[in-house]
Amino acid sequence: MPIHQRVVVERGARSGFPIVVAVHSTALGPAVGGCRLAVYRDWRDGLDDALRLSAAMTSKAALAGLPNGGAMTVAALPGDGPVDRRAVLHDVADVIDSLGGACATGPDVGTGPGDMAVLGERTDHVLGRAGGSSAATAAGVVAAIQAVVADRFGSPALSGRSFAVLGAGRVGTHVVDLLAAAGGEVIVSDVDASRRTVAASCGATWTDPRSCLTAEVDVLVPAALGGLLTAATVPALRCAAVAGPANAQLDEPATADLLHARGILWAPAVVVGSGGVIHAVATDLHHETPDRVAARIAGIGDTLTGILEAARETSSTPAAAASRLAAFLIGEPLAPTMAPC
Ligand SMILES: NC(=O)c1ccc[n+]([C@@H]2O[C@H](COP(=O)([O-])OP(=O)(O)OC[C@H]3O[C@@H](n4cnc5c(N)ncnc54)[C@H](O)[C@@H]3O)[C@@H](O)[C@H]2O)c1
Questions:
Q1: How crowded is residue 274: how many other Cβ atoms within 10 Å of its Cβ?
Q2: Which of 61, 114, 123, 189 has the fewest CB atoms within 10 Å, i.e. the most exposed one?
Q3: 171 is in an annotated binding site
């Protein structure tokens, strides 16, 4: 198993809370990854998260075509008692800064652009201060959907194709708008009924989450939480393909085989949902022009097309083909925790 390049665990000088920065790999360039502030029963669970997510980020960055490796930062908060958020963020910034540019961090669960601005008071190695990742993520999702539609139906045209978008949050709303504007027939759902306005504003059809999941459509687009695709839900699907940004869509890697056996094309979320990371890293770290960044995001479609072709040629799942491609790009075999999904 490829060992992490460097893992730092420190007690925050101001907050006293454990701060973990895991740098998995800098083989392709400086490592990038999210900064997670979360409550853990035991801080070592936060360390596990950092180790797992930084390894997965190495695959994500490689598949995104970025000259970067993977990292992850975790501040393990206590479940009770006051939290001086600013103090925690400054502790995080000092640990990141002490690594001298080996890694940069951006928004993740529990953090947003405002928090990145606070980190930026003490280190330059910060991404995503300006926000805007959800629009970039959605643009990448649509590029991926075009590749999926081309693979399944022979043309990337979205007009006249049908979509079910599950989750009308920040990314899902943009995706619904883009698909509807391209002439797609769109069904949308969310557990939050107030999100019904997303459908009303662009002529999409609102439905309940279960009906959305099992709708007879060309592409199901998971844009809510993870764990959607399981041995229980896959038999109920009536779509030709699944392509969405939701992280950890598969409850376990073997579910990709169930989808494959049912003839449903599943596009790995690590590729489909990479537009936001590409935008943040290419803009903030590599200072690329907006046109170059947009081209990189549109390139998600080409990457996915290559993965789907490789899967077909080798009679394997797209998940397995993506895993092989990531290993080739990184130049070393992937550990199970790095398998892209
Ligand atoms: N924001 C990004 O740039 C980005 C990038 C890559 C991946 N992702 C992933 O994409 C997904 C959506 O991200 P987001 O930023 O739009 O999140 P969000 O929190 O803004 O939206 C998620 C939406 O899903 C809804 N939801 C939750 N559970 C649901 C369920 N069981 N059925 C239907 N709807 C449900 C919520 O009510 C919410 O409106 C997440 O899994 C996220 O990890 C996001």
A1: 29
A2: 114
A3: yes
User: Do 108 and 173 lie in a common domain?
Assistant: no
172 Cα to the center of ligand 1, angstroms: 7
Q: Is 324 helix (H, G, I), strand (E, B) or coil?
A: helix
- Tens digits of residue pLDDT in 182-193: 999 999 999 999
Domain count, the chain: 2
Q: Are residues 163 and 254 in the same domain?
A: yes
Question: Domain span at residue 53?
Answer: 6-119
Residue of the CA atom closest to atom 40 of ligand 1: 246
Q: Give domain status of residue 22, yes or no.
A: yes
User: Ligand 1: distance of its center to the CA of 89 in Å?
Assistant: 24
Domain end position, chosen among 56, 87, 119: 119
Going from the Cα of 275 to the center of ligand 1, the distance in angstroms, rounded, reads 15
ipTM, two decimals:
0.99
Tens digit of each residue's pLDDT (9 = 90 or more) over 3-23: 899 999 999 999 999 999 999
DSSP string, 25-74: --SSSSEEEEEEEEE-SSHHHHHHHHHHHHHHHHHHHHHTT-S-EEEEEE
Whether residue 168 is annotated as binding a ligand: the answer is yes
d(CA 329, CA 2): 14
pTM for the full predicted model: 0.92
